[in-house]
Amino acid sequence: MFKHILVPTDGSELSQATARRAVSFAKESGARITALYATPDFPECFFGEGALVDPGSPEKFARLAEEEAQKILNFIETLCQEAGVPCTKLSIHNDIPYEAIIEAANQQGCDLIFMASHGRSGIGALLLGSETSKVLTHSKIPVLVYR
To answer: Higher confidence at residue 54 or residue 78?
Structure first.
C-alpha cells in the first residue's frame, strides 16, 4: 500500500520509539523511509536559564546543527539497515517544523507521513500547540500518528 514513508524526528525518546515502529511498518509494507530532521535557522541571540547565550557565527551554528542532525538521523538509518529497509536521510533548515515536514514529504514523493504525537491535552496543548496537529490539518498526504 505505502511505498515511501517520511519519518520526521526531533531526536526525543518518543521520536525514537516512533522511528522503531515506522521501520517495522515499512518492512512489513515493503516500503522505504526518508528520515527527516529540521534544523532551525541561525538565531540572532536567545535566552537560556536566565542568561543571554551567543550561538556564535552563522557558520558555526550551521555546522553544529548539521552535526546534531546527522547524529539523530543516523539512529534511524541504523534501524533501517538492521531491518533491511532502504533509507534516505534528509536534513533541512526551517524554523517551522510542520511546514518542513509537509514540504519534505511533497518534494521526496512520500505517500505517508509517520510521526509521533506527544499527546498533550488541555492547557499544554493550547500553549504549546502541536506540530502533529498542524501536519494533520495542512497535509494532503496521509499521516499515521503513533502514540
So the answer is: 78
Asked if 116 and 7 touch (Cβ cutoff 8 Å), the reply is no
CATH, residue 99: 3.40.50.620
Q: Rounded to an integer, what distance in angstroms lies between the CA atom of residue 139 and that of residue 147?
A: 19
Q: Is the dihedral of CA 81, 141, 109, 102 positive or negative?
A: negative
**Lowest mean pLDDT across 24-38, 39-53, 63-77:** 39-53
The answer, yes or no, to whether residue 128 has pLDDT greater than 50, is no
- Which is more confident, 135 or 122? 135
How many structural domains compose the chain?
1
Taking alpha carbons only, the member of 104, 128, 140, 138 closest to residue 7 is: 104
Please give the C-alpha separations between residue 126 and each of 101, 130, 133, in angstroms, as whole numbers.
21, 9, 11
Side chain identity at residue 146, one-letter code: Y
Asked if residues 114 and 5 have their Cβ atoms less than 8 Å apart, the reply is: yes
